[in-house]
Write a structure and sequence with these properties.
The protein has helices spanning 25-54, 74-84; strands at residues 58-61, 68-71. The protein is mainly alpha-helical. The chain has a two-stranded antiparallel sheet with strand order 1-2. The chain is elongated.
Length: 88
Amino acid sequence: MQKMKRLDLLLPADHEIFAYPSGSRRTAAAKYLDIGMQLSHIERRLDNIEKSIADINTIEIDRKSNIKTTKSDKAKIARNIIQGFGLD
């Protein structure tokens, strides 16, 4: 069995956790803490992805002359991608 540690929290009397029956609050609180940690990791990964997207140098090829031109408007590209995924 995994070693357990206690975490005492002071919460407002009207906190949502108190809507759970008294015997199940500990399990619900632990579950929500785990979900919160997972969301924190996802947000960190998303931040890294957004930074990577902002650092991308795109190359546009003029279809008529096949000349490559570098587009340096990284912020606009990143913003369009963020809006496209509905992350704003």
